[in-house]
Design brief:
Low-confidence stretches: none
Number of strands: 40
Protein name: beta-glucosidase
GO molecular function: beta-glucosidase activity
Catalytic activity: Hydrolysis of terminal, non-reducing beta-D-glucosyl residues with release of beta-D-glucose
Distance between the termini: 34 Å
CATH topology of one domain: TIM Barrel
EC number: 3.2.1.21
Pfam family, one: Glyco_hydro_3
Oligomer: single chain
C-alpha cells in the first residue's frame, strides 16, 4: 500500500470538501479517513514518558519511563535514544502512528505545573536529549511530535496568557531546544502551544510558524494544534497550522467553506495544509503499523531491564558526607519512612499519566534489596501530604472478588430519588444503558464509553471496600455535576446539594469534600456506592466533549503527632533510616502551577525529626522539579529521585545498595527559596498586567540567572555525586576555523577503586561582547564510563553554536571576534580546567 500512496496524486484527486475534512481530527485520537481515495485514519497517543493509547478511562496498560527531568538528569544520549525506541515499540503495539512527545518547553520556574515533562532548563541539554529521544521513536516508524511550540511555560490561564518575551530570549532560550532537536532529528510532527506569544496565539502566529519554523529553519513536518488550541479559521491556516485537534471541528469544516467563498482563503491554502496531513498519513502507512489495531502492551525481561536502568540513571546523589552510601553488610534493621515510600509515584499528572503494566514502590524495592543483606525493613508513613486523599484502588473489589468496581450508565434518571441523600436502595431501577468494570476510583470519562450512552447521563459506581487497617478512615470525593457517596447505604459525602466549585480537572469539578467514617475494621468488606448525574456540569459548558470525572480517595485517619511519633520510634530502633518525601501528580500536573516550592504537609518536620532520631538517615526527595529543603544542612545523605516510572523502587534501591554507581546530575538548578528563581515574581498569577506574563529575566534563565546575580543555589545545575572520584587534566584547544569549528580535548581519570561514570560538561564564555551574555553557557557534555584507575580522553567537536548569540537588531546570529573562555567541569560551578581560544573575525548566519 505504501508504494501506491503518492501524496501529490491523491491530493490532486481529492475534492475540496474532502481536503477540508482532512484538516480536523476524528474524535480525540484519530485523523479523518477518506476511504474512497485510500486515505486511512491514523492513530495518535499522548506521551512523553510512555504511550497511554486512546483511552483515559479504563486505559490500556503501558510501560512508564522516568519523567523527562529525570531522563535529562542522566545526561545520557544513548539512554534517551533507547528509551525513545522502546516507547516506539510500545506505540506499535498499540497501533499508534503518532506519539505526542517529546516536550521541550524551557522551565522558567520550578513552579510550572508541567516542568517535569521537559528535559532541562538549559536549551542545549533540552534539545540534545530530545533529539536522541525522537531518533529512537522514529527508528520504529512512529512519528514523534515535538511540543509545545513555543513559550508554553506555565499553566495559569494557559489558553489565553500572553508570553511577552524579548526576541533575543525567544531565540536563545525558548526556540533553541526546538531548533536543536529539529536540526538533529527532524521530528515528523510539531504541536503548537495554547498560549499567545507577544500578542498572537501560537496556533496562528505567522512569525513563529511560517517565518521561523517553515522558512528560516526549513521544517517540512506536519504542524498539529494542541487539543482545542485553535482559535481562528483564516489566521491559523494562513500561518501554516495543518491539523486542528481534536474532532469534530470547531474552527474549520463549514467555516472554511465560508471563508473560501469570501476569498479570505484560497484553494492553494487548503492544499498546503492537506498536503502536510497526507504526508503524516504516509509516514503511518510506511510504518507498517496496522490501522484500527487492538491496543496491546509489551512486558519482556529486556524491557524491564531498560526501565530499571533508566530509573537508576535518573537518580541523582546530592549528599554523601559520611559515606553512608552504598549500604553494606552488617546492617540489621532499616526503617523506611515517608508518604512517598509505600505508593509508587511513577509520573506527574495530566497528559503524562497512564495505566502502568506494573509498579515497584520505593518500599518494595528497598525491602527486596535489604534481603540480600539479611536486613529487616520496618515501615511508617510518618505524615500525610496528599492534596487529595489516596485512591482506594488497592482496597476495592467487585462481587466475586475480582479487583475493581462496576460502573453503570443510564440515559434517563433510574429513579426519582436516584441522587437523593436518602434514596430507596431497595427500589427497582430502570434498565441500564451500559455498564463496565473499572480498576480505579479515579475515572476520567473522556473516552472508552459506549456510544449509546448520552453525554448527559446518570452514573452508579459500586464496589466492595476492604480496609487494611483498623480505625477511623477519612474519605474524599470530587466530581463533575452532582452526586453522593454511601457506605453500607449510609450517606458519607453529599455533593448533590449545591456543591461548591473546586480546582480539580481544570476547575470543572466540584470542591473535594472529606468526611470521616469511624471504627472501620481491617479485612471487613463494606459496600461503597456512588451515585451521580452530570446534567449540571454539561449546562455549564466545557471545551472538551466528555461524560465527566469522579475521584474517590481515602486513608486511615492519622493525627499529626501520632504519625511523627511513630516514624521517630521506627527510626530510633533501626541501624539506618530512609525517609522518602516529595510531590506527586496531585501537586505537579497539567492545568495548574505550584503556588510555592515547599514540600507539602508535614514533610519538612518529618524529615527534621527523623534526622534527629537517627544520624544514619538517608533522605530521598521525589519530585519532577525542585523543592526547598530547610533541613538540608542537617542531612548528611540526600538523593533526588524524580518520578522514576515502573521501576522507580528498584532503580532507587540499586543506587542505595550499590548495585548501580550513581551518575546522574541535575538538569535543573535547585534554588534555596522561591525568591531566588530568576523569573520571580513574574510567573503564573503574578503578572503585572491582565492576561500577560513578562519574561523579565530575559536570557538569564536557570543557572545563568543565578550566575549573573552571583547568587548561590541550593544545588547547582549539572551537579551530582558518584561513589567514584575523578580527575581532569591536559586540556587542549584547537584554533577556531573561519566557519567557527574547533575541538576541545582533555583527559579524565577515575582515581578511586570503584568503577563509575562521569558526566563531563563543557561551558563557553564570551569575555567581551557588544551585548550582555551569560557568565557561561553549556555547549557540550559527554558521559564517560571509567573502570577504577582508568584514563580516557574526552573530545568535543564544536561549531558556531558554541560562539554565537542572537542580534535582534540585524535579525541574525553573530559570533563576534575576540577571546572566548573554555570551561570544563563536573558541574556548572565545579570547573576543573580552563582555557582560552580566539575567534579572529566576526561572522553571522541564519537558519538551523
Amino acid at each position: 500500500m505504501a508504494a501506491e500512496f503518492d501524496v501529490e496524486t491523491i491530493l490532486a484527486r481529492l475534492s475540496m470538501p474532502n481536503k477540508i475534512k482532512l484538516l480536523t481530527g476524528k474524535g480525540l485520537w484519530q485523523t479523518e479517513p477518506i476511504s474512497e481515495e485510500g486515505v486511512p485514519s491514523i492513530r495518535l497517543s499522548d506521551g512523553p514518558n510512555g504511550v497511554r493509547g486512546t483511552q483515559f478511562f479504563n486505559g490500556f496498560p503501558s510501560s512508564c519511563f522516568p519523567a523527562s527531568t529525570g531522563l535529562g538528569s542522566s545526561f545520557d544520549i544513548e539512554l534517551a535514544q533507547k528509551v525513545g525506541a522502546a516507547i516506539g515499540d510500545e506505540a506499535r503495539a498499540k497501533g499508534c502512528h503518532v506519539l505526542l512527545a517529546p516536550t521541550v518547553n524551557t522551565q522558567r520556574s520550578p513552579q510550572g505545573g508541567r516542568s517535569f515533562e521537559s528535559f532541562s532548563e538549559d536549551p542545549h541539554l533540552n534539545g540534545t536529549i530530545a533529539a536522541a529521544y525522537i531518533n529512537g521513536v522514529q527508528s520504529k516508524g512512529v512519528s514523534a511530535t515535538i511540543k509545545h511550540y513555543v513559550a508554553n511555560d506555565q499553566e495559569h490561564q494557559r489558553f489565553s496568557i500572553d508570553s511577552v518575551v524579548s526576541e533575543r530570549a525567544l531565540r536563545e532560550v525558548y526556540l533553541k531546544p526546538f531548533q536543536i532537536a529539529i536540526k538533529h532529528s527532524n521530528p515528523w510532527a510539531l504541536m503548537t502551544a495554547y498560549n499567545r506569544v507577544n500578542g498572537v496565539h501560537a496556533s496562528e502566529n505567522v512569525k513563529i510558524l511560517r517565518d521561523i519554523l517553515r522558512k528560516e529553519w526549513g521544517y517540512q513536518g506536519t504542524i498539529i494544534s494542541d487539543w482545542t488550541g485553535v482559535y481562528s479559521t483564516t489566521e491559523s491556516i494562513k500561518a501554516g497550522l495543518d491539523l486542528e485537534m481534536p474532532g469534530p471541528s470547531v474552527m474549520r469544516g463549514k467555516a472554511i467553506e465560508r471563508v473560501l467563498i469570501a476569498e479570505k482563503l484560497f484553494p492553494s491554502d487548503i492544499d498546503a495544509c492537506a498536503r502536510k496531513v497526507l504526508e503524516l498519513v504516509k509516514h503511518g502507512i510506511d510504518s507498517g503499523i496496522p490501522f484500527n489495531a487492538p491496543q496491546e502492551f509489551i512486558d519482556t525481561p529486556e524491557l524491564r531491564h531498560l526501565l530499571r536502568t533508566a530509573a537508576a540513571d535518573a537518580t541523582v546523589l546530592l549528599k554523601n558526607d559520611k559515606s553512608l552510601l552504598p549500604l553494606r553488610q552488617g546492617i540489621k534493621n532499616i526503617a523506611v519512612i515517608g508518604p512517598n515510600a509505600k505508593p509508587a509515584m511513577i509520573c506527574g499528572g495530566g497528559s503524562a499519566q497512564l495505566a502502568p503494566t506494573y509498579t515497584v514502590s520505593p518500599l518494595q524495592g528497598i525491602a527486596a534489596a535489604a534481603q540480600t543483606l539479611g536486613a529487616e525493613v520496618n515501615y511508617a508513613v510518618g505524615a500525610a501530604t496528599h492534596k487529595y486523599l489516596p485512591l482506594l484502588d488497592p482496597y476495592i473489589s467487585q462481587a466475586g472478588g475480582k479487583a475493581g468496581a462496576l460502573v453503570e450508565f443510564w440515559n434517563e434518571a433510574p429513579s426519582e430519588d436516584f441522587i437523593s441523600v436518602s434514596p430507596n436502595f431497595g427500589a427497582l431501577l430502570k434498565s441500564i444503558t451500559w455498564s463496565t468494570p473499572t480498576l480505579s476510583t479515579n475515572s476520567w470519562l473522556m473516552d472508552g464509553i459506549d456510544p449509546k450512552v448520552n453525554l448527559t447521563c446518570w452514573i452508579r459506581y459500586t464496589t466492595k471496600f476492604t480496609p487494611d487497617e483498623d480505625g477511623d478512615w477519612d474519605f474524599g470525593m470530587n466530581l463533575t455535576g452532582r452526586g453522593n457517596l454511601f457506605i453500607n447505604n449510609e450517606l458519607v459525602i453529599n455533593l448533590s446539594t449545591n456543591p461548591e466549585p473546586g480546582t480539580a480537572f481544570f476547575g470543572l469539578a466540584t470542591a473535594d469534600v472529606r468526611k470521616v467514617v469511624k471504627g472501620l475494621k481491617a479485612g471487613w468488606e463494606y459496600d461503597l456506592e456512588l451515585r451521580m448525574c452530570n446534567e449540571d456540569f454539561h449546562a455549564r459548558g466545557s471545551s472538551f466533549t466528555f461524560w465527566g470525572i469522579v475521584r474517590v480517595g481515602g486513608s486511615r485517619v492519622l493525627t499529626e503527632e501520632e504519625g511523627i511519633n511513630e516514624a521517630v520510634e521506627v527510626a530510633r530502633a533501626s541501624d539506618v533510616a530512609i525517609v522518602v518525601v516529595g510531590l506527586n501528580y496531585d501537586w505537579e500536573g497539567e492545568g495548574f502551577d505550584r503556588p510555592d516550592l515547599e514540600l507539602p504537609g508535614l514533610s519538612n518536620r518529618l524529615v527534621a525529626e527523623v534526622l534527629k532520631a537517627n544520624p544514619n538517615t538517608i533522605v530521598v526527595n521525589q519530585s519532577g522539579a525542585p523543592v526547598t529543603m530547610p533541613w538540608v544542612n542537617e542531612a548528611t545523605t540526600l538523593i533526588q529521585a524524580f518520578y522514576g516510572g515502573n521501576e522507580l523502587g528498584n532503580g532507587l534501591a540499586d543506587v542505595i545498595f550499590g548495585k548501580v554507581n550513581p551518575s546522574g546530575k541535575l538538569a535543573l538548578t535547585f534554588p534555596k527559596c522561591l525568591e531566588d528563581v530568576p523569573s520571580f515574581p513574574s510567573f503564573g498569577d503574578q503578572g503585572q498586567e491582565h492576561g500577560k506574563i513578562v519574561y523579565n529575566e530575559g536570557i538569564f534563565v536557570g543557572y545563568k540567572g543565578f550566575e549573573i546575580r552571583k547568587l548561590a543555589p541550593l544545588f547547582p545545575f549539572g551537579y551530582g555525586l558518584s561513589y567514584s572520584k575523578f580527575e581532569y587534566s591536559k586540556l587542549e584547544i584547537s584554533p577556531i576555523s573561519s566557519d567557527g569549528t574547533f575541538t576541545v580535548i582533555f583527559n579524565v581519570k577515575n582515581i578511586s577503586d570503584v568503577d563509575g561514570r562521569e558526566i563531563v560538561q563543557l561551558y563557553m564564555s564570551d569575555q567581551k561582547s557588544s551585548l550582555p551574555r551569560p557568565v557561561k553557557e553549556l555547549k557540550g557534555f559527554n558521559k564517560i564510563a571509567l573502570k577504577a584507575g582508568e584514563i580516557k580522553t574526552a573530545k568535543f567537536s564544536l561549531d558556531r553554536e558554541a560562539l554565537g548569540f542572537y542580534d535582534d537588531r540585524s535579525a541574525q546570529w553573530i559570533a563576534e571576534k575576540g577571546i572566548f573562555g573554555v570551561h570544563v567541569g563536573a558541574s556548572s560551578v565545579d570547573i576543573k580546567l580552563k582555557g582560552e581560544v580566539e575567534l579572529k573575525e566576526s561572522f553571522t548566519w541564519t537558519g538551523l
